């Protein structure tokens, strides 16, 4: 029996990995697949040795407070590697965990290593390219410009398209917010401002207070606006609700908390306030105007400013090669600043321009079949290993 060990350490990686698993099982129905992931992988009949929520923390210094939990995840995955002796190890994003873990693969078994959704080595810490090339057998990237980062190596790298393209293509009524509002039981026609604070616990603490403060400023100027916060599967609704209570918003503001239905919230919204990351890609593909808000620990920000090699943090801006969605970052990320950026794209010329720019980004990212091609690569690797 073919055995795969999969390692997906965050919420978006969990979704991409689940699509990959379903595509792979269509070719190898009796494959046994174990590893780290979340609810999406569990629903795809993957045996979880550890839930990815244990790894749901981002940043550099932010990792310090989670060191014992991360060590627990590391031990569980290492034991699974030794116990299962997989034929293939599939790594999905989460470079901080998966690049070191790839080294353990070669120490403890003979499995080949496939990196599907490679980490963003083109953005910062380019030294990781050499580590990936030394520890990984094949790489699949989801943005066409990523291939260039590996040109100095002999590592086989292939652009497979973005995993979200297929999922969002089949997203019913993607262009009609009314249907999504009905599913979320949001009555009336008043514009909805959607909040996407992140999929990690520390991201909620950093981003949501700023986003909620922006909501208060928006409500003061336009009381008819509606608000909803999308809660990722890797964080608890209780944490989000506690943050909302701590913000002491005016009684006239109601912020709807929606768990596990981020895409419905995206489809329903008029404007989104989102942290940098995969959510901005989804919003771009759904042509939803957005303001991107990012905050990290001040010392982490100091390190990033000296190591990040790209001019923007939001993926739509990186794909477009210019600033098409506002980025409100770090010290500038205040409620009034975010609210002002949101008002700018509520209607009028600025909104129309962003919609036009997002449509162009959506075309670039619209290559479909990423999971299918990734599963073909995995099959090729297993076929090669069997000779």
Tag the structure with descriptive keywords:
387 residues; Rossmann fold; seven-stranded parallel sheet; 16 helices; alpha/beta; six-stranded parallel sheet; single chain
Please characterize this protein's 3D structure.
Helix 4 packs parallel to helix 5 (128-135) and helix 8 crosses helix 9 (237-246). Strand 5, helix 5 and strand 6 (138-141) form a beta-alpha-beta unit. The chain has two domains: 3-161 and 369-385, 3-Layer(aba) Sandwich (Rossmann fold); 171-364, Glycogen Phosphorylase B (Rossmann fold, 3-Layer(aba) Sandwich). It is built from 16 helices and 13 strands. The protein has helices at residues 11-27, 39-43, 67-84, 95-108, 128-135, 163-169, 177-183, 201-221, 237-246, 262-268, 278-285, 298-307, 315-320, 335-344, 348-364, 370-385; strands at 3-8, 32-37, 47-51, 88-92, 112-116, 138-141, 157-159, 192-196, 226-231, 255-259, 271-274, 290-294, 327-329. The two termini are 16 Å apart. It has a seven-stranded parallel beta sheet, sandwiched between helices. It has a six-stranded parallel beta sheet with strand order 10-9-8-11-12-13, with helices on both faces. The protein is globular. With 387 residues, the protein is an alpha/beta fold. 47% of the residues lie in helices and 16% in strands.
Oligomer: single chain
CATH topology of the largest domain: Rossmann fold
Order of helices and strands: EHEHEHEHEHEEHHEHEHEHEHEHHEHHH
How many domains comprise the coordinates?
2
- The value of Rg in angstroms is 21 Å
Secondary-structure class: alpha/beta
Order of the strands making up the biggest sheet:
3-2-1-4-5-6-7
